[in-house]
Write a structure and sequence with these properties.
The chain is of the alpha/beta class and about 450 residues long. The chain is built from twelve helices and nine strands. Helix 3 crosses helix 9.
């Protein structure tokens, strides 16, 4: 599907970490390219502001040389566990996250091209970075780039767990337990509001109306609620502890605060939803003349996908048991490549190509107001990421109805009646949730 190109250019900046740049390929470098120097590309691509050329690529994007494909493992060891141990002690052989990054913004860019929109997409993303940390608000250089009047729209994404409350209550077998998290909601709000103030100030100084800001709500972490018993998966120390950073970790500690909950993914996502929408609502209420802030509920879409039986809830059920494979017609929204994640990040933490694609769909819907279902089974971004036409259609439906409802959708067909969803969820009372004034523009 290709739309008619529009002349007006929308300059958009995505700010975040590995959930923005996509930790794994094919997402990580999708639609990327150098802007200057040898190898610079002239075709539309994502502009990595920290890696505009090979010579200027930041240290955050110039890690150790990457190893060859895992299809023919060059890493010593006959088992994943042995290979991980080798990588853990030979850091120069670890897989790298080499820029320039394309990531979720690259998938978003491809979608806008197909919709006939003229978006100029830039990214500033550093692994594990927080909005309030040294890479963004805490950097005079980078915060000045973010707070610049050249942008028409800005997207902000914080560290996955930082918006969580400092403690959560989890009901385990009928007993409430209060547990500490790694959340720092005060820093989350400080980062969001600090950057929003810089963005607004730059626009006012330039004599232009403050631009809209979108907060990118990330999804749940499987390792925060489920346990892996496979010694080869996840990485060093178990999925629900901090691995080498937390050698004495126990289930239910700050690295697995939702373990034992009836639905840990939904509970964590609900907390993230409240944090992101709360931050946006408070900002809009207290700053009516400044940039308007919205939220792309990407994490909520993950719960919708799980509710309808499209996405697995506990990926370790399939990675831990020999012979167990993900059932036909289902997908894993999380990564499942421990060697690529080497060596301290558990599997079930970062999005897979499916998770990144779903995140991009929600961002595309929220930011542009275009109906992602119109991308259809011929969506080039999905094909490039190895996502089938039928999977793409289902994920587009998930994104559309999540944005429509303003949160996860649960009143959906059983997996056996997915045909209904392909027909637009006929018979479901979901259209009443649809925002009536935000879709003046639709994909032709």
């Amino acid at each position: 599907m290709t739309g008619t190109a529009r002349a007006d250019v929308v300059n958009i900046l995505f700010v975040g970490n590995s959930y923005t740049f996509g930790k794994y390929n094919p997402v990580r470098n999708y639609m990327s390219g150098y802007d200057t120097g040898p190898g610079a590309v002239s075709t539309p691509h994502v502009h990595d502001l920290l890696c505009s050329s090979a010579a200027s690529c930041s240290a955050a994007e110039k890690v150790a040389p990457s190893v060859p494909s895992q299809a023919n493992p060059p890493i010593p060891g006959s088992t994943v566990s042995a290979q991980l141990n080798y990588l853990n002690t030979n850091t120069s052989s670890q897989y790298s996250e080499t820029g320039p990054f394309g990531g979720v913004p690259g998938v978003f860019l491809k979608m806008t091209q197909q919709a006939g929109l003229n978006y100029n997409v830039s990214i500033m993303a550093v692994a594990s970075a927080t909005l309030n940390g040294a890479n963004f608000l805490g950097s005079a250089t980078n915060s000045a780039i973010i707070g610049n009047s050249q942008w028409n729209k800005v997207v902000l994404q914080d560290q996955t767990f930082q918006p969580l409350p400092t403690t959560v209550t989890v009901n385990v077998n009928g007993v409430d337990q209060t547990r500490a998290t790694r959340g720092n909601p005060a820093n989350f709000v400080k980062g969001v509001e600090g950057l929003a103030n810089k963005i607004t100030a730059a626009d006012v100084a330039a004599g232009k109306a403050p631009i809209p800001i979108t907060l990118y709500q990330t999804g749940p972490l499987a390792n925060y609620g489920y346990n892996s018993t496979n010694p080869n998966n996840p990485i060093f120390g178990g999925s629900t502890t901090g691995g080498a950073n937390d050698p004495g970790g126990q289930l239910g500690d700050q690295y697995s605060p939702y373990y034992g909950a009836a639905n840990p993914n939904a509970q964590m996502t609900s907390a993230l939803h409240n944090a992101y929408t709360g931050a946006a609502n408070n900002w809009n209420t207290n700053n009516p003349t400044k940039s308007h802030m919205g939220v792309a509920l990407a994490g909520d879409a993950w719960i919708t996908a799980m509710n309808i039986g499209l996405a697995v809830k506990n990926p370790y059920l399939y990675s831990d048991v020999p012979g167990n494979t993900i059932p036909a017609g289902m997908i894993n929204l999380w990564d499942n490549n421990p060697l690529d994640a080497c060596c301290l990040v558990p599997t079930g933490y970062h999005p897979s190509q499916y998770g990144s694609y779903l995140n991009a769909l929600v961002l595309f819907d929220e930011i542009t107001g275009f109906d992602p279902r119109k991308l259809g089974g011929g969506d080039q971004a999905a094909a490039d990421l190895g996502i089938s036409s039928s999977e793409a259609i289902l994920l587009q439906q998930v994104a559309y109805f999540t944005v429509a409802a303003g949160g996860p959708v649960s009143a959906v067909p059983e997996p056996s009646t997915w045909a209904m969803m392909l027909l637009g969820f006929a018979g479901l009372a979901l259209f009443s949730y649809r925002k009536t004034n935000r879709r003046a523009l639709q994909i032709a």
